[in-house]
Amino acid sequence: MRSLGMALVLFLIIRTFLLEAFQIPSGSMERTLLAGDFLFVNKAVYGAQIPGTSARLPAFESPHRGDVIVFAYPKDPTITYVKRVIGVGNDVVEMRDGQTLVNGRAIEEPYVQRIDPLHDGYDPDFTWQRQFLVQRNEEQRRRYHPTRDTWGPLRVPASKYFVLGDNRDNSADSRYWGFVDASAIKGRPLVVYFSYDRATRDALPWLTDIRWSRLGSLIH
User: Fold this and answer.
1) What is the pLDDT of residues 133-157, one digit of tens each?
2) Which of 68, 116, 198, 203 has the CB geometry, 3.0–4.6 Å to 169, for a possible disulfide?
3) Cα(157)–Cα(46) distance, integer angstroms
4) N- to C-terminal Cα distance for the chain?
5) 54: Cβ–Cβ under 8 A, 6 or more apart, which residues?
6) Longest pairwise C-alpha distance within the chain
7) What are the residue ranges spanned by the domains of the chain?
8) Tell me: the pLDDT tens digits for 23-80?
């Protein structure tokens, strides 16, 4: 019983402060992450939160542009999201016809997948962006008409992050609901430890439709 108790305590410490498992439920991060991927998330790298408090352990580093992060969804903290950091505090981010620009410079994004590049209609969810527009007067803000692939420039507030899904045409991300607060970030994915094709109709897809080539793959 003592050995079992010690094992349980060790497991809880590791899960709370070091590593936690996470499952990818959707295709918003394809090709980097697929629906049905199971990940280990490094919680220590950005400073794990102490349970029951708002305090965090000391972080080894802060999220950088290009990092894939796991975080609490700003509109419902009980839901966990995974996206890629595009802008950090004080960055100016924008998109022009699908090309992402940070601080006025186009960035290379070899990880991006486009499946519906011709559809770029207006969505009322984009209206939050008006208050963060750079160098716009009230008339320009009123006439601002962002779309999925053309928006900004927006200034990222301090201690906030602007995140996008790698599957740009099928991702509910910062374009729609805003910035991610530093306190909402849970960690950085490390490795895919299991994966199966969720689109199959088999009785036991988690057993018969394993993506063997993805097991053990590192996440970048």
Assistant:
1) 997 788 888 888 899 999 999 999 9
2) 116
3) 19
4) 41
5) 183
6) 70
7) 2-214
8) 999 999 998 999 999 999 999 889 877 777 777 778 789 999 999 999 999 999 999 9
Distances in Å between the Cα of 140 and the Cα atoms of 108, 153, 160 are 29, 12, 25
Residue 205 clears pLDDT 60, i.e. is over it = yes
The architecture in CATH of the region 2-214 reads Ribbon (2.10)
Q: Which residues contact 44 (CB under 8 A, 6 or more apart)?
A: 17, 18, 57, 60, 187
- Residues designated as active site: 28, 83
Q: Which residues contact 199 (CB under 8 A, 6 or more apart)?
A: 35
| Residue 84: how many other CB atoms lie within 10 Å | 23
Q: Which residue has the tokens 């509109």?
A: 75
Say which residue the tokens 């960055």 belong to: 91
Distance CA 145, CA 151 (A): 8
| Residue 165 to residue 33: CA distance in whole angstroms | 10
pLDDT band at 90 (very low <50, low <70, confident <90, very high): very high
Instruction: Give the Cα separation of 37 and 183 in Å (integer).
Output: 25
The values of phi and psi at residue 90, to 5°, are 80, -5
pLDDT at 49: 78
Pairing label, strands 37-42, 19-23:
antiparallel
Grouping H, G, I as helix, E, B as strand and the rest as coil, residue 7 is: helix
| 117/13 Cα distance (integer angstroms) | 45
